[in-house]
Amino acid sequence: MNEDSSSTSSPPGGNETIPPTPVKRSKSWQPPSVEELHALLPQYEITKLLGRGGMGAVYQGRQLNLDRAVAIKILPPGLDVVDESYAERFKNEARAMARMNHPGIVAVYDSGEAADGTLYIVMEYVEGTDVSRMVAQQGRLPAEHALAITAHVCDALQYAHERGIIHRDIKPANIMVGYDGVVKVADFGLAKINQGGESGLTRSGMAMGTLHYMAPETLTLGAAVDHRADLYAVGVMLFQMLTGSLPQGMFEMPSEQVPGTDPRFDAIITKALRNDRDLRYQSAESLRADLDAILTQPVAKVSDDDSHAHAALPTEARPQRPEEESDGEFEETGPVVRQRDGSLLRWAALLVLGSLAFGFYWEKTRNMPPKTAASAEPTPPPASVQASSPPTATTPSSPSTPAAPAIVERPSPVTPESTAPASTAAATSMITAPV
Questions:
Q1: Residues 6+ apart with CB under 8 A from 324
Q2: Among 143, 191, 213, 230, fewest CB within 10 Å belongs to which?
Q3: Which of 80, 130, 155, 169 is flagged as catalytic?
Q4: Cis peptide before 20 (omega within 30 of 0)
Q5: Alpha-carbon span 146 to 190, nearest angstrom
Q6: Between the CA atoms of 294, 298, 301 and 307, what dihedral angle is there, to the nearest 10 degrees?
């Protein structure tokens, strides 16, 4: 086919969902060579052809007077066949976009029309690659990389949307990633400016963009398009980065296709891809906020064993209160108490067993006779100890420690009736008095 399609009317019936583009170039159109473009733009040194598409070609070059690397995008001549004011509006809107100054947007340095009618845009050259090539090489991107790229794109779109500029062609090929990690949105040169009632480069009956990333309203003849079409494209791009495929037909969400993917990505994509744009994200800022929540509020995956260990942790780590302050009840309320409920019986049982053991030890210690080397009579031990021990033997060696009154003031003579209390007092002094 050697004919160019320049008609913008819809076929009979009026229900065509994909209106024609302003100009559909034939496959025979070839971008100019490096030498030919240098002859058209002598102020630039043209290095090589970077790529070509349906709406033009991109070259790498250098601006001679400022000695800086640039990317030059040219649009094929003949676009003004459909609209005589197309070239003039293109220049005006290119100037407006050149005023955008954002680190996430490829800067526009110059624009104009060559001698043969070729429209061109001179942009910042990004040393790196684009997201489309990254996905093609890796199959899909790690979730953290996809999140970071999408967040930067949202920042750039929020800046542009606040100034009434709609990109209209958000896709992985237009997202540049520098070797230094900088993410920049490119190709704002074909954007639509929506200020003061102006229709911008795209008018009613014109469709711009790449089919898989176009919102439903952009495919409807005569439908108004606003910034929410860009957010739809962001959802498609996020899906593609996470899965390596496009959301077509009855598709599964990323968490279903890629194990380990945070399911909150599914919710973001679902909202961004709503057919009804009133149900989509209403701003790039709100979409970015949900991405930030994934980064700052990770989902904790707790297994059954981990849940039991976690429930016991607050009880084990709880500091023990002194006995005089203990009332046998937990003063804490809320989730911490609910986590301790499972251990109350065990702690109560341990407390009872400990009390019984201590009581048994105490009774055994009370009835145990004091150990002396001078005991001559085997029975009864307490009376023997009291009879053979001199009164001064119980006096402590340290002058600062008082003697036990029960040992100093013992009755004489020793009788069976006084044996039990004397032995009890002696045992008590052994426990309380320092050795």
A1: none
A2: 143
A3: 169
A4: no
A5: 25
A6: -150
